[in-house]
Amino acid sequence: MTEPADHILLLAGTREARLLAKKLVETFPDVRITASFAGAVDNLPNLGVPTRVGGFGGVAGLTDYLVNEKVTLLVDATHPFAAQMSGNAVFAARSLNLPLIRLERPAWTPESGDLWQSVVSLGEAADALPAQARAFLAIGRKDLHRFTHRTDIFALARMIEPPELPLPGHWQLVLGRPPLSASEEIALFRKHRITHVVAKNSGGRRSHAKIEAARQLGLPVIMVDRPKLAETELATSVEDALRKINLEIASDF
Ligand code: NAP
After folding, report:
1. Distance 85 CA to ligand 1 centre (A)
2. pLDDT of residue 2
3. C-alpha closest to that of 78 among 208, 233, 202, 201
4. CA of 143 to the centre of ligand 1 (A)
5. Which residues line the pocket of ligand 1, CB cutoff 6 A?
6. CA 209, CA 179: separation in Å to the nearest integer?
7. What is the dihedral of CA 198, 204, 209, 212, to 10 degrees?
8. Which of 21, 195, 230, 246 makes a 20 to 30 Å CA pair with 7?
9. Between β-strands 73-76 and 100-103, what pairing exists: parallel, antiparallel or unpaired?
10. Which pTM value belongs to this model?
11. Which structural domain, as residue segments, surrounds residue 37?
């Protein structure tokens, strides 16, 4: 049996990556597809394609992988804040002259009634919280240490898996994925008398309920802007990515 001519490496870790993997299998049954996870969480979803887990070892490691595995198209569907991985993908693809498509869902924009303060980093977000604030931190466990010196505030921190570092004793932890409904977020914010919401501008519907809840309660949101990433071909939705991947694969013949 001959090897498939094309091999797509899909850098995963988002809902869009999961949806795209499914579409890729349906659309390109003869193309080899490999999904890649950082392994940041234990409970990884099954994407229905062969999967590898763990870092590649920087740009050099990724470049080696792309060459050794004869990857013909790199698709970066990582989270908009996974700047290191996205940067590595750009540099490795450029060095090999390999096509790269980044699937990047649009950022959220403030609507009428939103009280947003935009900041450029999590450190700036931590500084922006006033003394005695009761903050809801929806920033993931990796970046929590940027807030833990703020022992003058109360924080309710939500993340999927427990943090590696201890939290200040008077803070509280909620483990789990965000709910889809604003009413659940409103109940949570009321229960803990939240005064400020800190969020990364992730975009997408999956974690937007907290933003709607803050709007309805008139709470300020400290919104961390996305990191600036090196330029590459962009797709803004799963359908757009599929169309662009189709063009790349068709151009091989
Ligand atoms: P990051 O800071 O950009 O990446 C750190 C390192 O983790 C990378 O240099 C790479 O290691 C490895 N890595 C990241 N994504 C990978 C992937 N898909 N496959 C293989 N290795 C990967 O990323 P992060 O912010 O820690 O996020 C880690 C993962 O969680 C990403 O896949 C992302 O999609 C997902 N995620 C992140 C966030 C967030 O807010 N940052 C939110 C939801 C989901 P090497 O340099 O050794 O290759």
Report:
1. 6
2. 59
3. 202
4. 13
5. 11-14, 36-38, 40, 55-58, 61-62, 78-79, 81-85, 88, 140, 142, 200
6. 7
7. 80
8. 230
9. parallel
10. 0.94
11. 7-106+228-250
Give the pLDDT confidence of 155-183 residue by residue, as tens digits: 999 998 899 899 999 999 999 999 999 99
Which 8-state DSSP code applies to residue 227?
P
Res 186 pLDDT > 60 = yes
- The domain total for the chain is 2
Six-digit token string for 70: 């004869």
Sequence-ordered list of residues with C-beta below 8 angstroms from that of 12, at least 6 positions apart, any chain: 18, 21, 35, 36, 37, 47, 51, 77, 78
Q: Record the tokens describing residue 212, joined without a space.
A: 């709607």
Residue 183 sits in the same domain as residue 204: yes
Choice from 78, 139, 229 to test ligand 1 binding pocket (greatest atom count within 8 A of CB) = 78
Q: Give the number of the atom of ligand 1 that is nearest the alpha carbon of residue 61.
A: 48
Sheet of strand 115-119: strand arrangement = 115-119, 220-224, 196-200, 134-138, 154-159, 172-175
